[in-house]
Specification:
mainly alpha; two-stranded parallel sheet; single chain; 2 domains; Arc Repressor Mutant, subunit A; Rossmann fold; 139 residues
Amino acid sequence: MHDEILHAERAVRAGARGYITKQEATTKVMVAIRQVLSGEIYWSERAAARVASKIASPAKPEAAFPVDCLTDRELQVFELIGAGRSTRQISAALHIDVSTVETYRARIKEKLNLKDALALLQYAIRWHVASQSGNSGNS
């Protein structure tokens, strides 16, 4: 769930009026749509509980989820690295120059305190696998 909460927080900061997790039943999706259409904000119970827990925790967000410190674009690059994409493939997918991808990779390594490209790749793959296997919260 770590990556889903990260996306939920970013979506709300970007102006989303609602967020529902992938695991929710269709009936909950309909409730969420109706609530947002009526002008209210909707957060699924799981997402709201996780965010509330995170806010109540005395730990800094970076300590709980180091990836939280990445910008939206850095997170996109990080996710693509974890999916096994090469620098050229990331460049093409995001419509940015290869040198720009390299800059993002360097910033990500610095922010996550990773010593080299291999450490970045390993961390990104672990993140990707965890997010694909039910969002278990392991990072």
